[in-house]
Write a structure and sequence with these properties.
The complex is a heterodimer. Chain A is α/β, with parallel strands linked by helices. Helix content of chain A is 34%, strand content 28%. By secondary structure, chain B is an alpha+beta fold. Chain B contains 26 helices and 25 strands. In chain B, helix 2 runs antiparallel to helix 11 and helix 13 crosses helix 14. The radius of gyration of chain B is 34 Å and the shape is elongated. The chains are: A alpha/beta, B alpha+beta. Chain A: Belongs to the ABC transporter superfamily. Macrolide exporter (TC 3.A.1.122) family.
């Protein structure tokens, strides 16, 4: 599904390049659950953004479902990304002025889904994640865990094939974090959604099938894990 | 502490160069506009205040209604002044000017120069008005006949020096001795004479209370109430006017006269009101209009307010950048009060820089402004004692006005929230901000509508069917100087290539031509009931066809009829007022010079033509064959007009050696009547553009502000798949709604204001709905362009940068 080859990214500071990522080669197959780990500044988030097509590398190639992403025009890349990728952030990044319902609906607006269809899809998701009662609340009226839940629902609403999560539990307490991770596992197993998450926590990383360890912009090690029994 | 503030202020301005530039530039434009208008207004208000007795000098105005005609005159009869001084002890002094006789021919060597700015004045003239002498004593200079007082520039012109005492000036072939040279009359005076001749030389039939030809001024003693004094005029009328009226016009008493709907009233007008508040006739120079002073003052205030609003908006827009500084200062123990001072000082620094720039702009633009407003203002007047205090106080007021809101807003940040980076939340949908935008755009739309309508009205006047053809008519001025040769001059010119026809008549349907009115009646006895006041124009056989006027009934004057000397042509208004079913062939009666009624037979009715400004409806008028040689007009048809003019000029030189040759074109003279409106239109257009530019700068700032406020949201939306178009739409929608709302507010206000302005014109264009639509569309388009620049920038930004959590 995803194939990164010789991905490097650097900034020129005082005429000398400072590498954030250096020669990254990663392959992720459909249905996988991958965790990216590493200390601060190791390039985890940048790598995730590159996978999510939010950022461009300075060098390298990227195959997404056998399509060379960097050969595509901006417009097609946006299409590809809109259809296939959902994003989850550490700070939730819900839109403060919109209700839970409207927040969840937003991605559909940008994919030109019809009004009636949108309504059905959002109601369906609200039902499924058991937050029907919260649909008219604003983000500020929710707890962190609930906000992140809304964030996840929003990311899933357009039925993406790939879910990218940047420290999804970073702002949550351990119990809330555990609930979110369980949810991720469930989505991965039941819906077959590929998940790539960036995390600091060993415990959360263990939910993944594979852990990629980054250090100073390089892949230090990849540890494969046997499938966890449910 | 103050140094620290100033340092931070200047570094902040420097750091955000483009922002500061917009801020300072917008404010500078606003201030410059304000300064120019203040110069203009102060100048307009300063008219005639140079006179030491300005607060005690009054002009005697006359209001007459007789036979359907209303006359509001600036002049009174010749005995009025002396009578008031003799009968009423409150009157300290009086003086009169007699300028109705027109220009004089002054000899300079072998050459004659036509001087229009001449008057005969009473010897008391220089006791009333403060016009200091350079040589001789003006106060006693005109005690004798054949004396003249001239201004310094006139002395320079005729004698090459201001030492012109006792030299001789020959005017209309009469020699006058220069008995004083005065400094040039101040620019802000309602009269500008170059020559002031002794009143004793005025050629006038003295002693007639019913003939009004003298500008008459009285000085009341200190402490006299002029309103109370006006009551005395009733006594004057009863005592002096009624006996004369009985003698000449069969009017037996004032009651009978007034019962017939007539009026004869006198009033006093304070000297300092003359320039701005007199809409009377005839004035000694072009007057201003107090309405324009009000309108321009309001515009100055509004433009300044718009500029201040921009400043507020742009300052708050920058607040996110300043929030951290506020947080740190607060954590370090700064009180809110101190922070408010700091921000106020910053805004004061900005305003001072803007003010400096504004003075520079005003200095550069002033010649242009003078040209447009027909003024000769000087930037030095900014330092005069009237404006300087204003100039000093202005930055403080503007600084406070513009800085107070940002100062209070910024200093109100909670330090912890700010340092955590969530300060900007909670200030997103501010109704104040929306109100400011609505105000700015409503003002701009009103100005755009006003500008379009003024422009359309002027266009309408220019192209209106006037009842005569103003194109290709050459007017030769002063042909009276040719004496009996005027006819042969006309015939000589008619022989030239390209001249179609010509007419000798001082009466033309434009300004700077003769006017004469007279009472007309259907019965041989004219009294106050059946008299109709009409214009009496003396013309010749070729008049109507030369000027392209049309006869709608009857016929034109023709040499083929021997009896045309007692024939008369009336215009349509006159026919209507006389209420004749078929006017042609009817008789009407007109008094001759000896007050005897003469019968005239109506031979034709001429189609109504505009002979006064289009502000007035067309009054009654009649035409008779007569001798009025002042002007000679030619209908021409030639591509090379200048060759023709020089041909005419050489003919003039051979027939009237030494006499000044002067010509004009009828259409130019026509345009001359609307110079005032054209000036106002130009000024209005300039200010409208300025207001819009400033409002757009403000909108630019606001969109920047909005984009900054919503930067996180924009990032999220982009991650969720929003296109650039989606984001631009999102950012623009709110503002465009506000502009639409502004239009709704602006329309009725603009309609009302322009309706009032158009009311002034008897002939006016209509206010089409499209004018309003166009104005709204322009405002919307400008707003859209301004917004999209920032919106696209925000939408193009990489969301990753904005979503990074710190």
């Amino acid at each position: 599904m995803i194939q990164l080859q010789h991905i490097s990214k650097w900034y020129n500071v005082g005429g000398k390049p400072t590498f954030i990522l250096k020669d990254i080669n990663i392959k992720i197959t459909e249905g996988e659950f991958v965790s990216i780990m590493g200390p601060s500044g190791s390039g985890k988030t940048t790598l995730l953004n590159i996978i999510g097509m939010l950022d461009l590398p300075s060098e390298g190639s990227y195959q997404f479902f056998d399509q060379a992403v960097y050969d595509l025009r901006e417009k097609h890349r946006t299409e590809l990304y809109k259809k296939n990728i959902g994003f989850i952030f550490q700070a939730y990044h819900l839109i403060d002025e919109l209700t839970v319902y409207e927040n969840i609906e937003t991605p559909l607006l940008y994919q030109d889904v019809k009004s009636s269809e949108r309504k059905a899809m959002v109601s369906d998701m609200l039902d499924k994640f058991n937050i029907v009662g919260k649909k008219d609340l604003f983000p500020s009226q929710l707890s962190g865990g609930q906000q992140q839940l809304v964030g996840i629902v929003r990311a899933l609403i357009a039925k993406p094939k790939l879910l990218l999560a940047d420290e999804p539990t970073g702002n949550l307490n351990s119990k809330q974090g555990e609930e979110i991770m369980d949810l991720f596992q469930k989505i991965n197993e039941e819906e077959g959604v590929t998940i790539v998450q960036v995390t600091h926590s060993e415990k959360n990383a263990d939910y993944g099938h594979r852990i990629i360890n980054l250090l100073d912009g390089r892949v230090e090690s990849i540890s494969e894990k046997p499938l966890k029994q449910v | 502490m103050l140094r620290n503030y100033l340092k931070v202020a200047i570094r902040n301005l420097w750091k955000n160069k483009s922002f500061s530039a917009i801020n300072i530039f917008g404010l500078a434009i606003g201030l410059a506009t304000c300064l120019l208008i203040v110069l203009y207004v102060v100048d307009e208000l300063s008219y005639d205040t140079y006179n030491e007795k300005a607060d005690r000098i009054y002009r005697v105005n006359t209001d007459i209604r007789f036979g359907g005609g209303d006359l509001h005159l600036t002049v009174a009869s010749d005995p009025m002044g002396p009578t008031l001084k003799r009968d009423y002890p409150q009157v300290e002094e009086y003086t009169r000017m007699y300028a109705s006789s027109g220009s004089k021919l002054i000899r300079k060597g072998a050459q004659f120069i036509e001087e229009p700015n001449v008057a005969h004045v009473d010897s008391t003239f220089f006791n009333v008005f403060t016009l200091p002498s350079l040589e001789g004593n003006a106060r006693t200079a005109l005690n004798e006949p054949n004396t003249v007082v001239i201004t310094a520039s006139t002395a320079q012109k005729y004698f090459g020096t201001t030492h012109a005492l006792n030299k001789i000036i020959e005017a209309d072939k009469i020699p006058y001795k220069v008995t004083a040279v005065i400094k040039d009359i101040p620019r802000n005076s309602h009269f500008h004479f170059d020559f002031m001749f002794s009143m004793d030389n005025a050629d006038y039939k003295w002693g007639n209370f019913l003939s009004n030809n003298f500008q008459t001024y009285i000085v009341l003693k200190e402490g006299s109430d002029y309103k109370a004094f006006e009551k005395n005029f009733k006594t004057v009328v009863a005592k002096y006017l009624v006996p004369q009226a009985k003698q000449f016009m069969q009017i037996n008493s004032m009651e009978e006269f007034e019962k017939a709907g007539n009026k004869l009233e006198y009033s006093l007008m304070p000297l300092t009101d003359i320039h701005l508040r007199s809409d009377r006739f005839p004035e000694l120079s072009v007057n201003g209009n107090i309405q324009y002073v009000y309108v321009f003052s309001a515009v100055a205030f509004i433009v300044l307010l718009i500029a201040c609003i921009n400043f507020m908006n742009l300052s708050t827009a920058r607040s996110a950048n300043r929030a951290k500084e506020v947080g740190i200062r607060k954590v370090l123990g700064t009180e809110r009060k101190t922070l408010v001072y700091q921000f106020l000082i910053e805004s004061l620094v900005t305003v001072l820089i803007a003010l400096f720039l504004a003075v520079c702009i005003a200095f550069l633009v002033l010649p242009l402004f003078n040209d447009v407003a027909a003024k000769s203002l000087s930037i030095k007047e900014l330092l005069g004692k009237k404006i300087l205090p204003f100039l000093i106080v202005l930055p403080f007021i503007v600084g406070l006005l513009a800085g107070a809101y940002p100062a209070l807003f910024l200093s109100g940040f909670k330090p912890i929230a700010v340092l955590k980076g969530s300060a900007s939340t909670g200030f997103k949908k501010s109704s104040l901000r929306s109100a400011l935008v609505v105000f700015q755009f409503a003002t701009s739309i009103i100005l755009i509508i006003g500008t379009i309508i003024v422009y359309r009205q002027l266009n309408y006047i220019q192209n209106k069917k006037l009842g005569f053809n103003k194109e290709q008519v050459l007017i030769i001025n002063g042909t009276g100087a040719l004496g009996n040769n005027v006819r042969s001059f006309k015939n000589e010119v008619l022989n030239m290539q390209g001249v179609i026809s010509g007419t000798i008549s001082g009466f033309l349907p434009v300004s700077n031509s003769s006017r004469n009115d007279n009472s007309v009646s259907k019965t041989p006895v004219i009294d106050s009931k059946n008299g109709i006041n009409m214009q009496r124009w003396a013309i010749d056989y070729d008049y109507l066809n030369t000027l392209g006027m049309h006869i709608v009934q009857g016929r034109n004057f023709s040499p083929g009829y021997g009896s045309d000397s007692s024939a008369i042509i009336i215009n349509e208004t006159a026919a209507k007022l006389l209420a004749f079913d078929k006017p042609v062939g009817k008789k009407i009666y007109i008094y001759n010079d000896e007050n005897k009624p003469l019968a005239f037979e109506i031979i034709g009715v001429v189609q109504n033509f505009n002979f006064e400004s289009l502000r007035q409806s067309i009054g009654p008028l009649y035409m008779v064959l007569g001798n009025s040689p002042w002007l000679t007009s030619f209908k021409v048809q030639t591509a090379n007009i200048s060759a023709l003019v020089s041909q005419v000029q050489s003919k003039w030189k051979s027939m009237a050696p030494g006499m000044p040759f002067s010509y004009r074109f009828l259409d130019d003279s026509f345009d001359e009547m609307y110079r005032g409106e054209q000036r106002v239109a130009k000024v209005a257009i300039t200010f409208a553009i300025l207001a819009i530019v400033i409002a757009c700068l403000g909108l630019f700032g606001l969109v920047t502000y909005a984009a900054e406020q919503r930067i996180k949201e924009i990032g999220i939306r982009k991650v969720l798949g929003a296109s650039i178009g989606n984001i631009v739409g999102l950012l623009s929608k709110d503002f465009l709604l506000l502009v639409a709302l502004s239009a709704c507010i602006a329309f009725p206000l603009a309609w009302w204001a322009m309706h009032n302005w158009l009311e002034d014109f008897a002939f006016r264009t209509n206010m089409s709905w499209w004018v309003f639509m166009v104005a709204a569309a322009i405002a919307l388009l400008i707003a859209l362009v301004t917004i999209s620049f920032q919106a696209i920038k925000a939408a193009m930004a990489n969301p990753v940068k904005n979503l990074r959590t710190e």
